[in-house]
Amino acid sequence: MAVDYTVIVVYLAGMLAMGWWGMRRARSKSEFLVAGRRLGPAMYSGTMAAIVLGGASTIGGVGLGYQYGLSGAWMVFTIGLGLLALSVFFSARIARLKVYTVSEMLDLRYGGRAGVISGVVMWAYTLMLAVTSTIAYATIFDVLFDMNRTVAIILGGSIVVAYSTLGGMWSITLTDMVQFVVKTVGVLLLLLPIAVVKAGGFSEMKAKLPTAYFDPLGIGGETIFTYVLIYTFGMLIGQDIWQRVFTARSDRTAKWGGTVAGTYCLVYALAGAVIGTAAKVLYPKLGSPDDAFATIVKDELPIGVRGLVLAAALAAVMSTSSGALIACATVANNDIWSRLRGAVRRDGEEHDEVRGNRAFILIMGVGVIGTAIALNNVVEALTVAYNLLVGGLLVPILGGLLWKRGTVQGALASVIVGGLAVIGLMAGYGILANEPVYYGLLASLAAYVAVSLATRPTDETVLAAWRERLAGRSPELASEPVPAHQ
């Protein structure tokens, strides 16, 4: 295992080095939070794919393949579909807004007053996303070093917090690009073909497994529909995803770079399901489907390759964790703390805000690590977060982009009614039930339409400023400071 350990240690040291290098570039708020909005197509595609394909997509995706066969690809597949929809239909407009958070977009569209409530919902989602990603370190480090759960979470979480705090989005972008390459090589180019060969090829896999394992819809229509509601729509509105869109150099980069990343997700989804199916042939009686990834890596891969593939799993977890962490800190600082203290931003404060955002990443990071250590049921926590996100924010965000008649009162009613409906329905049906997100989304939509139609239309000056912003012609954008090193 010495070679495998060396690969992992070198990888982790490289992540910290990237953080230190990124610190030298993060000299303004724009550089720190959205990498100066300067990412080109290649780097944008790689980092976008890295953030959406986390531990759940890698370890969980293989586990679903182990349990259901090829139809286990649907969870990650719907993530890819969501990213494609975001990139093709919305990303260009989102990138032209030149904001930092989803709540700022809502304030621009509706004329203010929607930010704090939506910010709290978004903060809860990004916090739970960061927590669940951080917990995944325990699984990986247990396979590598037989490490205590708490120590593993502290070690993995501290590395992510360190490089994220040092350089913000620049550090995260650089590390995500490395993580994208490591995942591509480790999972797609090494683990996938080796797993299929070890299982005897596709003909042997078909001979040894039930026919249902090769049914594209074997996982069930209702489950697929729920995945679409939660993950496809979740991709359209999550702060962690939007913050990556804000890093694009142009709206064209956001559109086409995101399309490439979404297509990559579809391939990754199928690869995970095939690896899981192969693991079912090799290990038909594992205690848990989520053990499939670690087991096939540990038992079937040669020395060195094993270390690289485990580094790929670590890369998947770190990319999602760091993206969720900076999103959580950005929302906490810009949408909640700054609004509650009544802070007034001025153009000259751009550079002064780097220290504040860095402090918030550190504070949120410590909170994430502590919560990850204390939390037991990760699936339930993540389900609560996604249900609140989709049930509370999907309608006012898409409504603001697509329906001129939507008002701030309708948006607030939608967030409150949808959020409370989801919470009440989860209490009644159970956290993991499908009904809360179904009915919560319908309640949110009904409240948005009814209240919007019953209140005065949004002021025309607000809508005019919104249209200018969407077109990229807002005069405020021209005055955004440009770092001296550009």
Descriptive account of the structure:
The C terminus is likely disordered. This protein has 20 helices and no strands. Helix 3 runs antiparallel to helix 11, helix 5 packs parallel to helix 10 and helix 7 packs antiparallel against helix 14. With about 475 residues, it is an all-alpha fold.
How is this fold's topology laid out?
Blueprint: H1 2-23, H2 29-34, H3 41-52, H4 55-68, H5 74-97, H6 102-110, H7 115-145, H8 149-198, H9 201-208, H10 221-237, H11 239-245, H12 251-282, H13 292-300, H14 305-340, H15 353-374, H16 378-402, H17 408-429, H18 435-454, H19 460-470, H20 475-478
Helix pairs in contact: 1-8, 1-14, 3-8, 3-11, 3-12, 3-14, 4-12, 4-14, 5-10, 5-12, 6-7, 6-16, 7-8, 7-14, 7-15, 7-16, 8-12, 8-14, 8-15, 10-16, 11-14, 12-13, 14-15, 16-17, 16-18, 17-18
For this entry, what is the oligomeric state of its chains?
Answer: single chain
- Please give the alpha-carbon distance between the first and last residues: 45 Å
Helix content: over 70%
- What does the average pLDDT come to? 85
Order of helices and strands: HHHHHHHHHHHHHHHHHHHH
By DSSP (H or I, 4+ residues per run), the number of helices equals 20
- Find the structural class using helix and strand composition: mainly alpha
Q: Which residues form runs of ≥5 with pLDDT under 50? A: 343-351, 476-486
Biggest sheet: strands, sense, closure?
Answer: none
Radius of gyration: 22 Å
Overall geometric form: globular
Q: What's the total count of β strands?
A: 0
Strand content: under 5%
Pfam family, one: SSF
Subcellular location: Membrane
GO biological process, one term: carboxylic acid transport
Membrane topology: Multi-pass membrane protein
